[in-house]
Amino acid sequence: MNRRSWVRLDNASNIFLAARSDVDTKVFRLSAEMDEPVDPGILQEALDATFERFPLYHAVLRRGVFWYYLQDSDLRPRVEPERGPTCAPLYQAGRLGLLFRVMHHRRRIILEVFHALSDGTGGLWFLTDLLTEYAQRTLSAAASSVPGDSATDPAPGPSGTVPPAPEIASFSPYELEPDSFAHYFRRRRRRSGRSSRFADAFASAAAPAPLGLQGLSPSPSADARADGSGTGTGSDAGTGHPRRIHRVRGTRTPDLRTRAIELTMPTSALLSESKASGASPTMFLTALFLDAVRASSGGLGARRTLSASVPVNLRQFFPSTSARNFFATIRIAHTFDARPGSPADEPGAISRSLEAEFRPQANARALAPKVARFIRVERSPLLRIVPRPLKDLVLGWVNARENRRLSVAVSNLGRVVLPEPAASQVGRVLFQVSAVRPQFCAISHGEDFTVTFTSPFTQTDHVREFVRSLTDRGVPVRVAAARVTEHELQEVAG
Amino acid sequence: MRRCAACAAGIEGEWDRCPLCGAQLFGHPSPDPLPSVPLRFSRRRLLRILVLVSLALIALSFVVQLWLGHRPSQFGAERSVWLGVCTMWLVTLMAVRGRRHLARGTLQLVVVISLVCTYWDYLTGWNSWSLSFAVPIVCACAIVALAILEQTVRHEAGEHVVYGSLTAGLGIVPIVFLLLGWVTTPIPSAICVAVALLTLAMLFVERGGEMRHEFGKRLHL
Questions:
Q1: Who among A3, A108, A481 is closest to B213 (CB)?
Q2: N or C, where is chain B less crowded by C-beta within 10 Å?
Q3: Domain count, chain A
Q4: Which residues numbered 103-132 in A keep a CB inside 8 Å of some CB on B?
Q5: Do A439 and A303 fall into the same domain?
Q6: Are A200 and A269 found together in one domain?
Q7: Is A441 helix (H, G, I), strand (E, B) or coil?
Q8: ipTM of this complex
Q9: In this structure, what DSSP letter does residue A193 have?
Q10: Residues 383-422 of A with CB under 8 A from B
């Protein structure tokens, strides 16, 4: 009888299960637009090859008495045409299924991942490998008359994501040298044979990221950067904001699907605007977002403070090869003056003030206690003996409390640098996440910078104001919106 | 690509009006990068509400029985039918809920049926028919059913060994009934305990390592 490898789910990932709902499925999506319509057959081959190299993605989620756990499975992913709404549920209690899906629509390759499995950076490693495999195979198909073509060889590891993808993303279980990957992780009993090496690979890949750190020594190259890799939930490193927080309200979409609106703009134009404002692109865009929410709110009333959660990729400070969730969120806020036209409420001034609030919190020294606390919580004997349903209740309550302190969420995965031949075949890359509140996710590839707004509400007023802020500044914007209301869908049906 | 003059932005896809401001668009449409997905209404929420209401009514019915007395003279045909309908509805709900995990569903059914029978026995004046017949027969049948299931239905690794051993463990409980003299006829309990011990012994001998692995995983602290 096959004894499957398993690793218990850490508390940080548990919160995604506790906070999951019909509205917020805790699924994130990464997609890439190719230069030609996607060939499903080639994509399936690329997926099969990539899947072999990512033991973590073999996992299904199961429930134990005290913990959820990730367990290795024999399931194989199938490439499917995109037929459902964005970020549709991936995990349903009691049903065993893979925690990711790969789809295609016209020129797009789409990867959706359940957030308890991995964060944005981890998902990007998988997508990078998938795109590289796909690009190599399409090249090979185009030049199929050439004998001895080597395009079907395993791809090199993704080399240019931010931060650079580690070796674990590109190893093959068949070529695994235990020492080559295990040095970052807990010592494990050595066993021989392919299946046990695969089991070791699974256990290592699925281990919680902070528990794999060798002490809390920051990376020598670590520098404060506002690029987030998580998508809005995590432990809050923010300072207390005593004022009452404005919360965005709206009409839920008819079947509770996520409203997604994609904005595409030239990277250079956006960077020059953010540079002119004196803030990083993430803070500049966040400032525009907060201002857009204010402008579309019809008056903030007594609740004049808008707060945003910004996830920070901890890998840039604490080198880790784990594709599991490894981020912290920082909360930043701005209080709008009751008098209209205050200079402090100009988007440029807001972005500088947000930057000044964010920067001291986004460095290794400020974040190290958080990671240490995380490890302490993971190893706390008291928390270990709490039954899982009770943990879910407590984490659900913690999450609901956090939600009341947030107006919006933002996440920026930064610049993606794909290896060749993928780089030349991929146009824009997009990133989005299911949302319990208005949120945007940003990512850039080459000269395409994309900002995807997601929301549980049908209203698009804040996106309109955001787009107009950009176009008023001379940044050209393209908008692509998914239809969510009956009226919008009737337009194409009729 | 169409354009919205009010937003000064290009609009991808076949929108007639700007999805942001509703203004009329101009220019030629471009292929939509996002599919138009028809609305889907899940019945899951409705079913969840129905199940919760059903469970609340069933629980209320069982509690109300206590107030109506528990002597044979007080337990007429109406109450039998009432309790019977509630029990049948409860068993149906549990069977539907456990249809994807047959081994776990079987164990849950054994527990619920045993408890309901014992309660029913108490309400009708305690003749010990539940502990003498119902509980041991249900347990023994469940152990045999799980053995048949393992041979006939594809199941997730470890699932059978966990729920099989838990059901067999439950099958040993009638030994307490025997020792304390709670039964009027000892044969069903004796057979149940024998079947349970035999099953447990076979599981230990043949799949002891797997049992330790599965229980270690599920009870991991």
A1: A3
A2: C
A3: 2
A4: 105-108
A5: yes
A6: no
A7: strand
A8: 0.80
A9: S
A10: 384-385
Q: Which residues of A touch B21 (CB under 8 A)?
A: 464
State which amino acid sits at residue A414.
Answer: G
Q: What are the structure tokens assigned to A145, written together?
A: 């008359």
CB within 8 Å of chain A, chain B residues 149-168: 156-158, 161
pLDDT, position A2: 55
Nearest C-alpha in B relative to A32: B33
> Sheet containing A259-266: which strands, arranged edge to edge?
A327-335, A305-313, A408-416, A439-445, A448-455, A259-266, A478-481, B9-11, B2-4
Chains A and B form CB pairs within 8 A to the count of 130
Distance from CA of A336 to the nearest CA of B (A): 24
Query: A155: distance to nearest CA of chain B, Å?
Result: 28
Looking at the structure, tell me whether residues A159 and A60 fall in a common domain: yes
Domain with residue A459: its CATH number is 3.30.559.30
Tell me how far the alpha carbon of residue A51 is from its chain's centroid.
19
Same domain, A69 and A204: yes
Structural domain harbouring A118: 6-212
Q: Are residues A90 and A177 in the same domain?
A: yes
Residue in B11, B20, B36 to test binding to A, most A beta-carbons within 10 Å: B20
Place of tokens 């149906």: B92
pLDDT of residue B132: 94
Residue ending a domain, among A186, A212, A238, is: A212
Asked whether the whole model's pTM tops 0.80, one would answer yes
Decide if pLDDT at A187 tops 90: no
DSSP A362: S
H or E stretch covering B159 = helix B159-172
In a domain, A244, yes or no: no
Minimal-distance CA residue of chain A relative to B157: A2
Same domain? A445 vs A354: yes
Q: What is the CATH number of the domain that holds A149?
A: 3.30.559
Rounded distance, CA B135 to CA A388, Å? 30
Last residue of a domain, one of A193, A212, A231: A212
**For residue range B127-162, what is the model confidence (pLDDT) as tens digits?**
899 999 999 999 999 999 999 988 887 776 678 888
Residues of chain B below pLDDT 70: 156-157
Residue in A2, A105, A478 nearest the CB of B10: A478
Shared domain for A150 and A288, answered yes or no, is no
Q: Which residue of B has its CA nearest to A479?
A: B11
CB crowding A269-278: b at 16 or more within 10 Å, else e = bbeebbeebe
